[in-house]
Write a structure and sequence with these properties.
The chain is mainly alpha-helical. The protein has 9 helices and no strands. It is 71% helix and 0% strand.
Length: 179
């Protein structure tokens, strides 16, 4: 049974979105997209799968067609949230596709950001592993090295619980970075 706290958060997020969003808008702000992705997360937690897919579909259409987001480095969080929802639903192929879309977006020359990039690679690796796609090891390694670069001990330890990282390569990177 979903918690009343999750239900309350969902209602507050809907209310917040209602202050700025209307269906005739051509462009959404980053904050509106973030609220919609949060609504999708809470719709998942509340078992509201129809609403969950409506939010995700709307966000994906906007992400694919809007030039408005091209300079917002924080959009990687949106891609991560959607990939994570698909993963929780067991839809590993869509999770990988969305994670890769976020990775490609983050690596565009006009964006070039590392914000949450390690988490996108982690999400991609996790879903590749679920589907027995051998590339998962490489994706975990990339996620680990990005987390190392960002001093993200939480993600590094989590990845180490999933796969053995080649420590010689890690030591080489640490030595190179400390020169």
């Amino acid at each position: 049974k979903p918690s009343s706290a999750a239900s309350d958060v969902y209602k507050r997020q809907e209310e917040a979105l209602g202050y700025t969003y209307n269906s005739k808008k051509k462009n959404l702000s980053y904050e509106e997209i973030l609220i919609m992705s949060n609504l999708a997360i809470f719709a998942y937690k509340l078992g509201m799968h129809k609403e969950l897919h409506e939010f995700i579909d709307y966000i994906l259409i906007f992400l694919k067609t809007s030039e408005f987001i091209s300079d917002n480095k924080r959009m990687t969080l949106i891609f991560f949230n959607i990939a994570n929802i698909y993963s929780r639903l067991g839809d590993y192929n869509n999770a990988i596709a969305i994670a890769q879309m976020g990775i490609d977006w983050a690596n565009k020359s006009t964006t070039n950001t590392q914000i949450r990039l390690s988490y996108l690679y982690y999400e991609k690796a996790y879903n590749e592993q679920k589907l027995n796609i051998e590339a998962y090891k490489q994706s975990y390694k990339i996620a680990y090295y990005l987390a190392l670069n960002n001093n993200d001990d939480f993600l590094m330890n989590f990845i180490k619980s999933k796969i053995r990282i080649e420590w010689i390569a890690c030591i080489s990177i640490i030595l190179i970075n400390n020169k």
